[in-house]
Specification:
The chain is mostly helical. It is about 65% helix and about 0% strand. The chain has one domain: Serine Threonine Protein Phosphatase 5, Tetratricopeptide repeat (Alpha Horseshoe), CATH 1.25.40. The mean pLDDT is about 85.
């Protein structure tokens, strides 16, 4: 026969252990994954240039270029390759002062503004380039992709998607030849 204290101790242990089960907490759900950082400006410009270049199968209108403007543009390309985006933008700004209605230079300046993280100016230059350009083909696509990138960095996803849709409308297939 068991001693009453042993029975009491046994019941106490069972009650204690069953009480612990009542206070068991559910594990906390894992925290949501962190939002990825926005792409670096160089990634943005590289992507929009590649996507616009992919549309070279469309009709592409190329006006004659002023030699001074071409020199400044070539200089800007060299400076950009060295990572000196501010000097490249300065060369392109000078080119725009020589040929203020050259849509190619305006677009290149817009891309340089993205590299400098000056997204509002990038959108303004891309929009002006679109207005001055043929409004179709690779330049048109680059204009709208630049605008889309600028809007995305501003958190305007609706504007971003709308600009990308406009970029898709820039392609014009060449007429069939017989």
């Amino acid at each position: 026969m068991q001693h009453p204290k042993n029975k009491l101790l046994g019941f106490g242990m069972v009650a204690l252990l069953s009480g612990c089960a009542w206070f068991r907490t559910e594990p906390k759900p894992p925290p949501p994954p962190p939002t990825p950082p926005p792409p670096a400006p160089l990634e943005i410009v590289t992507k929009l240039r590649l996507e616009s270049a992919a549309e070279l199968t469309t009709v592409d209108v190329q006006p004659l270029t002023n030699p001074a403007v071409q020199y400044l543009r070539d200089r800007a390309i060299e400076l950009e390759a060295k990572g000196d985006y501010a000097a490249a933008a300065k060369a392109l700004t000078e080119a725009v002062s020589v040929a203020p209605e050259d849509p190619e230079i305006l677009q290149h300046l817009a891309e340089e503004m993205i590299l400098l993280r000056r997204f509002v100016e990038a959108e303004a230059h891309a929009r002006k380039s679109f207005e001055m350009g043929a409004q179709l083909g690779p330049l048109c696509s680059a204009n709208w992709r630049t605008i889309a990138a600028a809007r995305k960095t501003a958190g305007d996803l609706l504007g971003h998607n709308s600009a990308l849709e406009r970029a898709g409308q820039c392609a014009v297939k060449p007429l069939p030849r017989f």
